[in-house]
Amino acid sequence: MNRPLGVTVSRHIIDSQRLHPEATGELSGLLNELIVAAKTISAEVNMAGLADILGMSGKTNIQGEHVQKLDEFANNTIKRRMARCGYICVMTSEEEADAIPVVEGYEGKYTLAFDPLDGSSNIDVNVSIGTIFSVHRRRTPDDGSGDDSDLLRKGREQVAAGYIIYGSSTMLVFSTGDGVHGFTLDPCVGEFFLSHPDIRIPQRSKYFSINEGNYTYWDEPVRRYLEHLKAVDKASGRPYSARYIGSLVADFHRNLIAGGIFLYPRDHKNPAKPHGKLRLLYEAAPLAFLAEQAGGRAITDDGRTILDIEPEELHQRVPLIIGSTHDVELFGEFLAGKR
Length: 339
Hints:
The chain is α+β, with helices and mostly antiparallel strands. The chain has 2 domains: 188 residues, 2-Layer Sandwich (Fructose-1,6-Bisphosphatase, Chain A, domain 1), CATH 3.30.540; 129 residues, D-Maltodextrin-Binding Protein, domain 2 (3-Layer(aba) Sandwich), CATH 3.40.190.80. It is 29% helix and 22% strand. The protein contains 8 helices and 15 strands. The termini are far apart.
């Protein structure tokens, strides 16, 4: 069977670089190294049921969460690939307590923050999981390793962000500030091909994604907003339909393509996490960057814009309200007491 020719992710990156005469090719090189790591992780994820790597590793990460075996594999794959790539000066991962240095002599001018395997608690039940990444330009001098100050940056300053989702197909979705584009991995040739050019999230939707099991623990504006979405009003397209997967990257991906709002507000169930569960640097900020590049919005449950938050620590947590602009702005009206 003849296979159709398409635009590969490498070609797309090269063509995008030509639009910026000042580009040196280093960011392109960084993204290509990440893509190789993603292919490696994708192959392992697809073999998980056959290779005895499902389940727990017996370790606990900095978040106090049990580390799945595939978590550990994904984390090590990205670390080893990027430590000698020559394009970054320092990294941070959900699975590591401290910043991760690169190999001496291979320091570059960018930083990398990543969640190696988001949604890994769903591995054993074959639900879509993914890798989320964020790239900033370093701020310390270019003559050695970077430090925490290079990583603790506003999301607004990201030069690239994206995710790889491992599901019925493996997709890479990313932005370098010129819109959001999606690429699907063709396993027959081992290459990502452009499948979703210039993704635009619908301005309003009919879907919401939230764990309603936490309803009792939410603040009053969040509860009132959810009740509003579920009320019957044909003129405004309500009630909305619930679509909650429980894997951040999968929930966000669905809403990015089909429209929707994802909510992970703070709750009063766990006093140890008063600011919510999701991490700013390698979950909320990169997805907020994608959302805004696709025409959507991302705020906290007290109305702050995610991309404008100045991080204070590597594993800082934030509430996240993200998705279609109309739905996020409507949430803001409930926060302000206008509804």
